């Protein structure tokens, strides 16, 4: 760790106070790349330090399981380990984390746990579970709470950026200027930092909206994540600790608007039919929210003294729930590259940032292409493609080695990941 004097206000300046920005701040300190207090997080506004209406911290008694927010994440084993290193995992309220043990994926023309389907079971790969469903609001609060012990929080917007050989300066909308050795853009898909750095993007809109809600089902979810591929888009049920499921239903924009306009009883009936009654009758327990889907990737990940992470670098289709996991692996890779080089003394070196870019851009583009291909294959009513994809699911289901590799990749315990996340 470099603890000597510096002309910079901070070693690292992070734009964005979401999960990715907060975790990156904590990780830089936990991996001894930067000293505590030498990392700044800049954001237009910071979320409250407690859950709304509770008066308690996220790790306290807090609200009950029935109060889960609509935004949830499926976290991999690699993400669990990374959050543990940052001091976040053990402080998450236990009623905001739920381990799932099985997954069943099937085509609309197939049968769940039958022909045209594929099943994954944690017991088959020697793992305690296949991952965790975590409430997004609690995760955000706890990640930022952990970062507060490592970083300085600065509430302001970005006005301009200028880089020099020895550092980078950020001018804020309130007139202040912040100097650092490295600027990290973690401010989301509409990244202001990426725009100011002059980095373009490519991709396309899916012309789909994802509908999200929590539902109660007649049959128990059995600690299983269920996903059915419909011709109009995938439908998923993610298990929650109180027996309900978090539903994510992707559909063409006009169809999504029609579904969202239905009353609760009508929506429940439509959802029951769309799911093939895999969990019996469905009943809404929350309002239905929606958000548009798109594929987007930055054409470059680095500029002199600056680097992109998470959604600022890539957004993918949510059908496999890998978006946040990919972003957390970005954090791990950057911390690994900088830490192995010698810490804060080497922050911002272009050769190191390019090493990170080569590593993560190839992995992220591969994941984006795979998810995009799956969406194109399954969101299709062509009879030949229907038969091929249904048969393919059945074939893979009968190949234990291939299933195991798929599951390990999804868990983040296989593939090109930093050594410190691989575990025993």
Write a brief structural summary.
The chain has 424 residues and is α+β, with helices and mostly antiparallel strands.
Question: What would the keywords be for this entry?
Answer:
424 residues; alpha+beta; globular; eight-stranded mixed sheet; nine-stranded mixed sheet
Task: Describe the protein in words.
- This protein has 424 residues and is α+β, with helices and mostly antiparallel strands.
- It has a domain at 10-97 and 131-202 and 294-378: FAD/NAD(P)-binding domain, CATH 3.50.50.
- Helices cover 32% and strands 29% of the residues.
- It contains ten helices and 20 strands.
- The strands form three sheets. Strands 5, 6, 12, 13, 14, 15, 16, 17 and 20 form a nine-stranded mixed sheet that branches. Strands 1, 2, 8, 9, 10, 11, 18 and 19 form an eight-stranded mixed sheet that branches. It has a three-stranded antiparallel sheet with strand order 3-7-4.
- α1 (19-30) runs parallel beside α3 (136-148) and α7 (323-341) packs antiparallel against α8 (350-378).
Low-confidence segments: 1-6, 53-62
Could you name the CATH homologous superfamily of the domain at 10-97 and 131-202 and 294-378? FAD/NAD(P)-binding domain
pLDDT average, as an integer?
Answer: 88
**CATH architecture group name of the domain at 10-97 and 131-202 and 294-378:** 3-Layer(bba) Sandwich
From the helix content, strand content and strand pairing, which structural class follows? alpha+beta
User: Helix and strand succession?
Assistant: EHEEHEEEEHEEEEHEEEEHHEEEEEHHHH
- Measured as a percent range, the helix fraction is 25-40%
Tertiary shape: globular
Radius of gyration: 22 Å
CATH class of the domain at 10-97 and 131-202 and 294-378: Alpha Beta
Describe the sheet with the most strands. Answer: 9 strands, mixed
Strand content: 25-35%
What distance lies between the first and last C-alpha atoms, to the nearest angstrom?
Answer: 26 Å
Task: Supply the number of helical segments.
Answer: 10
Number of strands: 20
The CATH topology of the domain at 10-97 and 131-202 and 294-378 comes to FAD/NAD(P)-binding domain
